[in-house]
Protein: Cytochrome b561 bacterial/Ni-hydrogenase domain-containing protein
Amino acid sequence: MTSMEPSADKWELYSMHKATGVVVLSLVSLRFLWRLINVKLDLPADLPSWQKLASRVTHYLLYVFMFLMPISGVLISVLGGHEVNVFSLFTIPAVEEKSVALAQFFNNIHGISALIFVGLIGLHIAAGLYHHFVRKDNILKRII
Structure:
């Protein structure tokens, strides 16, 4: 969206992007609480220790970025002097004294995090497919 020329369409896309981010943050928060409350299945005993570690680290990082992305996005807006309207349900107001420097900092965080997050998602998908088609160890079935 950053490469789009300023227009009503661009601002509408930004508004939808921000609102969707807040909804995603709410859903991720509920999912995180669900994960804390409910019993986690143990990984298969025959799984190599490096894969167990990789699984735990990847899941931890996925949660970090699922929280970081929408939080940094909201901070970009409110610190930049823009409110976040969440599908006309409620509005997160802008701060009284905007901080362009902080908004830019969180913009950098948001952009870099997006690239890392996409990489982690790709890794997660690849690992699931590896377990399903190569190891045939039913890990993918446990997820579903």
